[in-house]
User: Fold this.
Amino acid sequence: MQSPTLRAVLHSATARLAAQHDSARLDAELLLAAALGQSRSYLIAWPERVLTDAQAQGFAALLARREAGEPIAHILGRREFWSLDIEVTPATLIPRPETELLVELALARIPVDTAWDIVDLGTGSGAIALAVAQERPRSRVLATDVSMEALTVAQENARRLNIGNVDFRLSAWYAGLDDARRFDVILSNPPYVRTDDPHLHQGDVRFDPIEALVSGADGLNDLRIIVAGAPTQLRPGGWLLVEHGYDQGEDVRRLFAEAGFVDIQSVADLAGHPRVTLGRAVAAQTP
Ligand SMILES: C[S@@+](CC[C@H](N)C(=O)[O-])C[C@H]1O[C@@H](n2cnc3c(N)ncnc32)[C@H](O)[C@@H]1O
Assistant:
């Protein structure tokens, strides 16, 4: 029997995935490109090419994993974030597109030509820290996490991407930071999902580490610690920017106000949901 062409393989794989995944065509392309060791543009350029038996078997194995629900980022071991090729593992949250808003808002405040001190709390794969560090090479970025496994992945990403202005620290929020060091910017995409949120049992989220997601009954346990502790870690006038759930904007702005921040605002993501809240520390405070 004649081996099927790339076009035909893509067509049938898309049809198989369509029942479960909105991104069926894209998923099929990413998996086929990986099985061939080629880029997606190769599939478009050469639709009449046929797969070797080994390639067909490799692709079938990848497709079966996706059909079983495994996220594309875990199957490929990679996710693009801010145009960076970020390695992810089951120990790290898969970086989300909405987190690019946090990076964008941070970069709008961090000067290009000055060496600022920046910390990314709960760095996971390192996505936020690495994007900011790459865009602001004069600044020094500290990336922290309570998970040694995640920190190892983040460190490896920095090495592979050749981004040298990032340091890594095992730390539960501020507990492991140097007493005397003060930051110009604190960034965090912390766990903010409610313990009973039904989304935890749906789609790709099922494969994220649970400790990267949940934060108590109202989802705000970690944000309370991060916001309340930020003024003593920031230089006067320094910025705190945090990501949060689509319905947590009001609560998080209240936490900022209680901690004494000024210029507080929440910014909506592309879906129109308040997704990042930011504010400025007025003056250094003593604990
Ligand atoms: C929602 S994930 C975000 C990961 C990454 N910053 C991103 O945006 O893709 C939250 C991260 O916070 C870390 N984390 C959870 N509790 C922590 C704590 N007490 N101190 C520091 N990091 C913590 C988790 O290990 C996880 O990597």
Observations:
- The mean pLDDT is 94.
- The beta strands are 78-81, 84-87, 117-121, 140-145, 166-170, 183-188, 234-243, 262-268, 274-280.
- Residues 6-69 form a domain with the Helicase, Ruva Protein; domain 3 fold (CATH 1.10.8.10).
- The first strand starts at residue 78 and ends at 81.
